[in-house]
Specification:
With 162 residues, this protein is mainly alpha-helical. The protein has six helices and two strands. A two-stranded antiparallel sheet has the order 1-2. α1 runs parallel beside α6 and α3 packs parallel to α4.
Length: 162
């Protein structure tokens, strides 16, 4: 594994580990609460990250986790779905776990040449290469994992990461 793929793998592993800690103890009811009437619910944040993982899978050339293609209600700019319309929190956490395993395997097999491949459509946020896009999505995920941590606090739960 090259230094670049090793660093990307570490970013995704660290983010996933923090997410697991932050999501611990957040049940179905808590996952749908919008803290203090503002922000996003833990369910929306989790669903959004899992939905965005589809981009990571496509960049790595691996199949998306079953069920993630149906997560359009968690797209950027969408409103927080009510519990009836939302995907179950347990299902989202399971999808994230399955995605993490697949991403780690794919990154372990990726070469510097793979990461250096040009994107079909360069983007100001994603950059010009597969590696730069993967780095952006790792940052994006870490940002939202932090939001889950803040949501814990707003739900009067102890912080999970000290």
């Amino acid at each position: 594994m090259s230094m670049a793929t090793s660093l990307l793998a570490q970013q995704y592993r660290t983010s996933y580990g923090a997410a697991r800690l932050n999501l611990r103890g957040i049940g179905t009811a808590e996952a749908h609460e919008v803290p203090e009437g503002r922000g996003s619910s833990a369910n929306w944040i989790t669903g959004h990250v899992v939905a965005m993982r589809g981009h990571v899978h496509r960049l790595l050339g691996i199949p998306v986790v079953e069920g993630t293609d149906a997560l359009g209600i968690y797209a950027r700019g969408s409103t927080v779905p009510d519990e009836a319309a939302a995907t179950a929190q347990r299902a989202l956490v399971r999808m994230w776990k399955e995605s993490q395993a697949a991403v780690e395997i794919a990154l372990a097999a990726a070469s510097d040449d793979d990461l250096g491949c040009a994107l079909d459509a360069p983007d100001p946020l994603l950059g010009e290469t597969v590696g730069s896009a993967l780095a952006f999505f790792a940052f994006h995920e870490a940002y939202h994992v932090g939001q889950i941590g803040m949501t814990r606090r707003r739900l009067d739960m102890e912080g999970a990461i000290t």
